Amino acid sequence: MAQLWALPARLARLSDIRDHVAGWLDRHAAPLFDLAVRLTMAPIFFRSGLQKIGDWPATLFLFQEEYRVPLLPPEVAALLATATELTMPVLLVLGLATRLAAVPLLAMALVIQFVLGTANPAFSNPQHYFWMLLLAGLIVRGGGRLSVDHLLLRFSRRRMGDRQ
């Protein structure tokens, strides 16, 4: 009977331990995870951009023959894709405008998977779903505590606090 009375106290202790572990993970593991996601996604697109700019005639040929995107002329699509792939990953690495940087990369992954993949199954790759999930996570969560975004937010809040 005494054990029955001790059960709520034990549950309360378990709840405290759970809260302690969750707090530790939020403070220490989540920022590292956010950084890891940014550092995982950035090179994928940056390497693709380097490859495109390294052989521009081949890139234009691919956009005219293989990567036919509706609504955009091939030259414009090639230029936009290359510029996006070379600039947005830099922002992701820095964690600067992270949400904004992840949006066009997510759009590119969606186009690759669902527009190009529909026209040519060779472009349909389950890995693109993983990319979309990680990029959507960056859009929802932002760059995390180990980012320039976080530093700017702290600086901004400190300045606003000084005025009030």
Please explain how this structure is put together.
This protein is mainly α and 164 residues long. It contains six helices and no strands. Helix 2 packs across helix 3, helix 3 crosses helix 4 and helix 4 runs antiparallel to helix 5 (126-141). The longest helix has 53 residues, at 2-54.
List keywords for this structure.
mainly alpha, single chain, 164 residues, elongated
Globular, elongated, flat, extended or rod-shaped: what is the shape?
elongated
Beta-strand percentage?
A: under 5%
Low-pLDDT residue intervals, each spanning 5 or more residues:
none
How many beta strands in the DSSP annotation?
Answer: 0
Structural class: mainly alpha
Along the chain, the helix and strand elements come as: HHHHHH
Helicity level, as a percent range?
over 70%
Mean pLDDT: 93
Biggest beta-sheet profile: none
**How far is it from the N-terminal to the C-terminal residue, by CA?**
58 Å
**Radius of gyration computed on alpha carbons:** 22 Å
Instruction: Tell me the number of helical segments per DSSP (H or I, 4 or more residues long).
Output: 6
